[in-house]
Amino acid sequence: MERKDYLKEPVKHIKIDKALTVDELIRQFKNSGSFGAGKLATACDIYEKMLKDPECTIFLALSGAIIPAGMRSLVTDLIRKKMVDVIVTTGACMVHDAIEAIGGHHYKGTWSVNDKELYKYHIFRIYDIYVPEEDYVKLDYVFSEIYDEIAKEKKGQTLSSDEFAFEIGKRLKDPNSILRVAYEENVPIFIPAVRDSEFGFIHWMHASQNNQKNPLVVDAFKDVPTICGICSKSPKNGMIVLGGGVPRNTIQSSAIASKKGLDYAVVVTMDRPETGGLSGSTLEETVSWGKMKGEADHMMVIGDVLMVFPILVASAIERLGEDFKRSPLTQKINKGAEENGR
Amino acid sequence: MERKDYLKEPVKHIKIDKALTVDELIRQFKNSGSFGAGKLATACDIYEKMLKDPECTIFLALSGAIIPAGMRSLVTDLIRKKMVDVIVTTGACMVHDAIEAIGGHHYKGTWSVNDKELYKYHIFRIYDIYVPEEDYVKLDYVFSEIYDEIAKEKKGQTLSSDEFAFEIGKRLKDPNSILRVAYEENVPIFIPAVRDSEFGFIHWMHASQNNQKNPLVVDAFKDVPTICGICSKSPKNGMIVLGGGVPRNTIQSSAIASKKGLDYAVVVTMDRPETGGLSGSTLEETVSWGKMKGEADHMMVIGDVLMVFPILVASAIERLGEDFKRSPLTQKINKGAEENGR
Amino acid sequence: MERKDYLKEPVKHIKIDKALTVDELIRQFKNSGSFGAGKLATACDIYEKMLKDPECTIFLALSGAIIPAGMRSLVTDLIRKKMVDVIVTTGACMVHDAIEAIGGHHYKGTWSVNDKELYKYHIFRIYDIYVPEEDYVKLDYVFSEIYDEIAKEKKGQTLSSDEFAFEIGKRLKDPNSILRVAYEENVPIFIPAVRDSEFGFIHWMHASQNNQKNPLVVDAFKDVPTICGICSKSPKNGMIVLGGGVPRNTIQSSAIASKKGLDYAVVVTMDRPETGGLSGSTLEETVSWGKMKGEADHMMVIGDVLMVFPILVASAIERLGEDFKRSPLTQKINKGAEENGR
Amino acid sequence: MERKDYLKEPVKHIKIDKALTVDELIRQFKNSGSFGAGKLATACDIYEKMLKDPECTIFLALSGAIIPAGMRSLVTDLIRKKMVDVIVTTGACMVHDAIEAIGGHHYKGTWSVNDKELYKYHIFRIYDIYVPEEDYVKLDYVFSEIYDEIAKEKKGQTLSSDEFAFEIGKRLKDPNSILRVAYEENVPIFIPAVRDSEFGFIHWMHASQNNQKNPLVVDAFKDVPTICGICSKSPKNGMIVLGGGVPRNTIQSSAIASKKGLDYAVVVTMDRPETGGLSGSTLEETVSWGKMKGEADHMMVIGDVLMVFPILVASAIERLGEDFKRSPLTQKINKGAEENGR
Question: Which of A152, A238, C148, D297 has the smallest count of CB within 10 Å of its CB?
């Protein structure tokens, strides 16, 4: 590279002299092209590309306090609008969804509070959000029955984590539930660590009540071929990671196991790369493994998911416009899978 | 507090079903009311309050790579629109402004680059931004002459850091320069660590050329009574801190020295509170010192300034509308100061 | 609290005038009593208390790059010395252990490297560590056979994640393997997200080879009653969390599900509390849930696990001395469990 | 580079089977060679190299809560043992030193406290440390007199920041004061942002009392040639940065202004590189500017200074042994400077 190649495009200064739409602001961020502003603008571009690439399957990784923080409708709307094809998430995220699906609520609070008093009052805290214990108790009872029902129906069969999510979704009524809407729209939800959540303890309750006669069995490994199959059958694969942990790792591992490598990747996190956790590891590193292609469009946005994710969605919706239609490949792939007895 | 007081306001889920303006999005963030979304929404509310409070003087602390990252016009426009009354910044920030004022540029680059090659090419890197060395060389020569000129004019007198900024601004032509516009609009710019920047080394050059006969003297302590005087004469004081370091500390110290305590405070940073640096310290901590009032409206947004600051500005501009007029108190205070021979 | 109660104990300055042992340094940190030094000293005290409390069961949560980073022997020695009673970890951690158990290695590298070249060379990168692909390929083949063997032996039975770990450990020869040593010492290893790792993809291979006739089945939920049972039967419970993620969440959830609440807790992490992830959430927050008792000894050390963990271990070993013997409760609990057909 | 070059040195696992000295632990960290452990071990090696390189001048940058956190004696001992040649620090750090020099104390506290109560009690909080207001009031009075004294003695002359520190040190009695010991040992202390601290407000007090007749004048720019001169005259230059901010920037800028470029660099910080602040910027970036040589030994340790700094010192003291003597170049350089009327 010659000297002049480094000095090609001057930063243009962001200009805000009237009310801007979110995407107008993002286009100003692109003028800046640097630091957080540049990263976020590039992430918006990559998501737009994924959406407009007819060969791309879009995996969304959800972790952390997305639902308590008020991002639930964003996810259900993305599913309904076919702006995401596969979800990989934690047990906790789906528990949070389920809590609201059965009528519970998350309440605005503060992080600076006396937790001993909250304990006394049977109020659980998630940073600056409160959940009353009774919502969890209700969940335990409602879901223990749902487990019984599924166990009876699936007698003798084991379920994969996505089948578990599908069966739950089928039995929830709330039209704003991620589990429900994903069921309706046939978007698979993988929960590789499903046991690590209230779902695990509900299982204990359910299995005890049944005296172990007919418990629901989720086969820990059974979702592996399914998610890898999706990667494998899709010409291209893209991921959007909100947070990190198991959901990010599962998508990346599926990309390598299916010998595809991701074509697009956006990660939003505040975890650091230097301490050895997967969540903060760079996307560059994934290239060495073959998890992401060397030439993939990718961006790691260093920021609070609960600030960045809505911006990403707002920009995409504005860019696509009302007439945009997308035909996800997974619908065909899934259909094939179903006909084969899914 | 009773139990029900903790469970008053459920989180409302963010809804994005069409193109939103930035402030419409911020109002959705307020529905969430939690984590980064809630913090940012509250920060926007506080800035709006500051702007609408006729008794409040607004201090803006600038540090880091604000200018190279494309935020220069945001600052000049805030000054012109009288949406900020006092600026406290670093030498480096004003050097970045000056570089562009004399025709230099910051260029879009990447953080993943061979720095030895950049060195060979005389290109300086600021994370993902490049600046050619010749812009700094030009700055050295142009400013050395400006120093001479000021020194002659102010013969025998010492300057405070804000007078230094004022004299520089007077001599710059660029209508987009923060130093220039602040001069025109009579907004003081305090640079408490002015020496810690290219300005320091230009001084060395200037002083050597003059054989020390008539050097420019900036009195390190001379701006203390000026900034404390502004705090003291203003019924209320608010600060917006972008980054941290000396600018944040200076504003907070002025608030305590003037025995006022801040009434409003917004801090945007990614520094952590646990390691003993001022930049990441909580606003709660400032209450113990009297730097901020116990009942002050305050928010610390954990995020990248280069993403958050434009949102804060866009929201404020949208909320205030075109007809909004603000009469900063400092204009009177400064006038008084000038008549007393500033 | 009166004023004088706040001003009781002055910070004593750390003094290093000769070679110090690690614990002598930690005692100096205690003199400081503040920031990272104070937190680390307190963490050492808490671990010592756990070890000396005959009623306490010690849970160790492992995540991230502990093994590649050279902490493997620390863990095996803790197991052998009965300084940890239960391990909860990720699939990836145990894969890293297994890679070395079958003769593979992790190599010292650098984080600043061309990942496309590494990909070309079939070398995987974990921050500044390299692993050759052939070690993974070997793992796939060796473990696929181990899976077959276990499946045959356990025909028709499902395994819990700890039984899976136990069966693997039984079949490994390497005396430095965590899986092996835990098997020998009867220390249970829970891997709640076992599927999210190479273990998942080996399962795919194994199941395909068998034409699904007789695959190994790990029941995702089956370890819940086991780990909760340990908490429940132990008068007191303490945890040491290295990193976060599923292992931390699982221990905390077990503490609440067993209605015990942790009595001791040390967390080492660099994740932040503000962004909604469990890994960075404060220990104060866990009190509201009943995951930790309000009066528990607890400390969250903000630091790199790969720097802090060896210090914690070195301090404990030095404090306990050579004659220290500990009789973990779990050995009895486990024995009871085994007699009941574990 | 060929494939085998990447796979040369396997990670050796850390082994702790008895009480270790701090440097024995660091050597185990070197066996790991990765993540925080590897970074810290390399940092210790670099500091050792600096100390043993007879051509190297060692600059120490201090910022943040070093003194309140109990690191004061570490610094004074480094000065006395000639293990550091030049100090660059903040006004706040030297205020903290001065507070203790006049008999004040910093007290152990907690970060989780009611700051409004502390305010009521006139207790200032620095994260988990408390300082009573009366210590600051005492400082104001004692130092106002010291200012008067210096002003009288230096009548008509301006002081540089290091001369200011020197004059203060001369007047303090406390043998544990950094300012005092640096004065005794002729180690210059540069305080480029001296005004941004209680020193600034004491100046206001002092200047008001004198009716501006004979105030102490610190020339903001006067220390530039002095520190650049040290860099320039020293064959090699190394820096150890604890924290960041102005002290780090000043050393780096001096290295470039003197056209030398650093030969050794250790930075300890938890600030991030992605947000545009100098404190978190990588050492790689400094190479592009010429602040550090491309081939310099350098390491950025991501960790809490208040944990890492004592380890760095303990390791160095253990490695050097009791008989080690070092003849700093600055002593000659300074002597030369003094003879020329410093």
Answer: A152
The reply to whether residue D270 touches residue C108, judged by beta carbons under 8 angstroms, is no
Please give the model's pTM, rounded to 2 decimal places: 0.97
A-D interface: how many C-beta pairs under 8 angstroms? Answer: 19
The answer to whether the beta carbons of residues B22 and A22 sit under 8 Å apart is yes
Nearest residue to A266 (alpha-carbon basis) of A29, A6, A39? A39
Range in A255-264, B321-330, C331-340, D133-142 the model is least confident about: C331-340
By the CB < 8 Å criterion, does B257 face chain D? Answer: yes
Measured between beta carbons, which residues in chain B are less than 8 angstroms from residue C39? 274
Nearest CA among C201, C218, C85 for reference residue C141: C201
Where are any strands of DSSP class E within A14-169? 56-62, 86-89, 107-108, 123-126, 129-132
3-state SS, residue B319: helix
Cβ neighbours, 10 Å, residue B142: 17
- Give A300→chain C minimum CA distance, Å: 15
Q: What is the pLDDT of residue A67?
A: 98
Instruction: Specify the pLDDT at position C328.
Output: 87
Query: Two tokens at B243?
Result: 């980054």
C287 with A245: Cβ contact below 8 A: no
- The closest alpha carbon to A160, from A223, A206, A104, A111, belongs to A223
C149 touches chain D (CB under 8 A): no
> What ipTM does this complex have?
0.96
Residues 22-51, chain B: which have Cβ within 8 Å of D?
none
- Write out chain C residues lying below 8 Å of D106, CB-based: 10-11
Does any CB of chain B come closer than 8 Å to the CB of residue D252? no
Contact A90, A243 (CB under 8 A): no
C66, C221, C291, C340: best to mutate for the A interface, most A CBs within 10 A = C221
Nearest chain D Cα distance for residue C242, angstroms = 13
Q: pLDDT by residue (tens digit) across A98-130?
A: 999 999 999 999 999 999 999 999 999 999 999
Q: What is the pLDDT of residues B176-233, one digit of tens each?
A: 999 999 999 999 999 999 999 999 999 999 998 866 678 999 999 999 999 999 999 9
Distance CA B200, CA B206 (A): 10
Q: Taking residues D29-49, what's their average pLDDT?
A: 98
3-state secondary structure of A153: helix
Distance CA B173, CA B189 (A): 17
Q: C51: Cβ–Cβ under 8 A, 6 or more apart, which residues? A: C58, C83, C316, C320, C324, C326
Q: Is B291 a catalytic residue?
A: yes
Quickly tell me which residue has 């942990």 as its tokens: A245
Q: Which residues of B touch D275 (CB under 8 A)?
A: 64, 243, 270, 304-306
What dihedral angle (degrees, nearest 10) is formed by the CA atoms of A270, A276, A279, A281? 80
CB atoms C207 and A218 under 8 Å = no
Neighbouring subunits of B (3+ Cβ pairs under 8 A): A, C, D
Which residues in chain D touch residue A39, judged by CB atoms under 8 angstroms apart? 274
Q: Are C179 and C97 in contact (CB under 8 A)?
A: yes
